[in-house]
Amino acid sequence: MRRALPQPKSPVYSPVTRVTIGTGKISLLRILLIVNSFASSVTPRNTVLVHQHLARHHDVQVVETNERGHATRFAQDAASRGLDAVVAFGGDGTLNEVATGLAGSDTALAMLPGGSTNVFVRTLGLANDPMVALTQLVSGLEHGEVERVSLGQANGRYFCFHAGIGYDAAVVELVERRSSLKRLVGQPLFAYSAMHSWFRSYDRQYPHFTLDIDGRHIPNGYFTVVLNTNPYTFVGKHPINLSKAASLEKKLVVVTFKKMTTPVMLRTLYSALRRGGLEKSSSIDIAIDVENVSINFPAPFPYQLDGDYLGDTTSLEIKHCPEALRLVRPSITF
User: Fold this and answer.
1) Where does the record place the DAGKc domain (predicted)?
2) Per-residue pLDDT tens digits for 74-98
3) What is d(CA 332, CA 313) in angstroms, rounded to the nearest whole number?
4) Under 8 Å CB-to-CB from 5, ≥6 apart: which residues?
5) Which has the closest alpha carbon to 315: 293, 333, 332?
6) Whether the predicted pLDDT of 24 surpasses 70
7) What's the rounded Cα separation, in Å, for the pair 86 and 28?
8) Nearest to residue 310, comparing CAs of 110, 170, 198?
9) Which residues, at least 6 apart from 146, have a Cβ–Cβ distance to it below 8 Å?
10) Is the pLDDT assigned to residue 10 strictly greater than 60?
11) Nearest Cα to 329, choosing from 51, 21, 100?
12) d(Cα 261, Cα 194) in Å, to the nearest integer?
């Protein structure tokens, strides 16, 4: 029997004078801190330190997630009660859930790196160390550095930095099968899963889907990444840049591999690491300023959003959602 998910309880706040982010000097905010204690960089000690630091000048409640979807429901509850901000402390999956819960509301999203890669956090310029990033985040909160940014949406689910269809989704699925090792091993597990998928489990002989990108048809897709930001990901300290045209201030960028051979992927990796992005070729299609993407195939294909594997599907509708989310920009002072 499938166990019902526990419903998140609404945090109780002290009566305070409300001050809205972005309207001037910030003196006191109502903040919900959502913590994924299973994330690789989250510990009981740094959770307490983050809470204490935020609570010095603001009214802060802490909640912890323990099931998939919890962070979204916590965020939706915070938005429905008009909280000023939600701070997401976890990995990219936690961030994705919180952004999904806050999209379309006036409650701002702030974030701290708690995972193994932390792509979106690092894209904004935050340090990859949670305690260093905390200083940057608090400065951004207290100076009202908040702006509305765009998100992507795939079959109704939002994504912050990218959607992956095909090969990388198969890699993520393998990583999630070994989720118990992810906290201990980190990025080497992704490398192992990428090699296993490439040589053993992912079919590179036949296309996996067809695409219609703002009405333009691509019949043979092996692997597609829909970018809302750049870089696509990080390997250690090194960004993997697929397209400099991708940013939160612009529409989507769609990178599609029409061939998946070892030479193509080696050239891709070199260009992504050394040249700052890919160029369109007979093997790679690149579309910029994209509003809508339809991906279809009779046989199911895998997809992932922000590094979270969501299963296989035969149809995927992706669209650009402008000004969907209020985002706290960190203050980068060093």
Assistant:
1) 53-158
2) 999 999 999 999 999 999 999 999 9
3) 41
4) 67, 69, 70
5) 293
6) no
7) 14
8) 170
9) 21, 22, 108, 140, 326, 327, 328, 329
10) no
11) 21
12) 14
| Residues sharing a CB contact under 8 Å with residue 190, sequence separation 6 or more, in sequence order | 117, 171, 175
Indicate if the pLDDT at residue 134 is higher than 80: yes
**276 Cβ partners below 8 Å, 6+ apart?**
241, 244
Q: Rounded to whole angstroms, how far apart are CA atoms 287 and 280?
A: 9
Both structure tokens of 146: 């908040």
Local structure of residue 178 (DSSP, 8 states): T
C-alpha distances (whole Å) from 182 to each of 163, 172, 186 are 21, 11, 5
SS3 325: strand
Report pTM.
0.87
The structural domains of the chain, with segments of one domain joined by +, span 30-144, 157-320
The crossing angle, in degrees rounded to 10, of helices 70-80 and 92-102 is: 30
Whose tokens are 């990108």? That residue is 213
Helix (H) / strand (E) containing 332: none
The position carrying tokens 């060093």 is: 334
**From the centroid of its chain, how far is CA 113?**
11
Cα radius of gyration (the chain): 20
Q: Which amino acid is at 181?
A: L
Domain 157-320 sits in CATH at 2.60.200.40
Pairing of strands 216-221, 308-328: unpaired
Q: CA 156 to CA 154: how far, in whole Å?
A: 5
Within this chain, domains 30-144 and 157-320 share the same CATH topology: no
For residues 330 and 23, which has the higher predicted lDDT (pLDDT)? 330
Task: State the pLDDT at residue 89.
Answer: 97
Topology (CATH) of 30-144: Rossmann fold (3.40.50)
Q: Residue 326 is encoded by which pair of tokens?
A: 């209020």
223: alpha, beta or left? (left if phi > 0; alpha if psi -120 to 50): beta
